[in-house]
Amino acid sequence: MPKITRKRVHPWPVRLCHWLNVMVMVGMVMSGWGIYNASPLFSFTFPKVMTLGGWLGGNIAWHLAVMWLLFANALFYLIWGGVSGHFKRRFFPLSLTMAMSEIGRALRFKLPHQQGKYNAVQKLLYVTVILLGALLVLSGLSIWKPVQLSWLVALFGGFDTARYVHFFAMSGLTLFVVVHVVMVLLVPKTLPAMITGGRREESDDE
Ligand code: HEM
Asked: Across residues 39-45, what is the average pLDDT?
């Protein structure tokens, strides 16, 4: 008779932080686009339906409120990920050469996916998005409190440059989300485990 076992693929802190982060990102990006529209850096603005808050004051209020959720969630994820060994186990060793060769295989749909074990392309994308998130937060802090954090503004090369850094980090993160969601759609069996945490395994023993 087949024996059914459940294997834990994603522990609860990863799932909790991941799905909270999805909501946080939607709130931050949509309210951020509203703020951008009030003083655009480029010759385009974002459609109003893609913004959150209704007017500039509302956009800013949402951006700063959701920011605290982002802060708490990111802090918990980073501390837990470091202390539990999650980052070390799942994201490393990470090699750029391995990721490059795997990107080629991924584009030819020849990259096998093993549940609970990230391939080099995923490792590279996840580590990059965490670093991009840090850049986004730091550049955001410097344009939020440019007087108190003048040293940070100086590190970015000035207030205007920090604004561009913030915009491009948001663009990189948005691009990550598009690639990430396409990857999930291509390998949809990864999704249930990110929701429930585990997967059912049938084995023939006994
Ligand atoms: C609706 C949108 C999203 C879906 C459906 C989704 C789905 C998933 C799935 C299924 C995994 C596990 C992949 C696997 O086991 O191979 C995963 C992992 C991950 N996702 Fe997402 N994701 C979404 C949005 C995001 C966003 C917005 C971010 C960050 C900006 C993000 C960052 C990550 C990271 C960093 C991991 C690895 C987590 C860890 O192991 O610590 N995802 N996602």
From this structure: 98
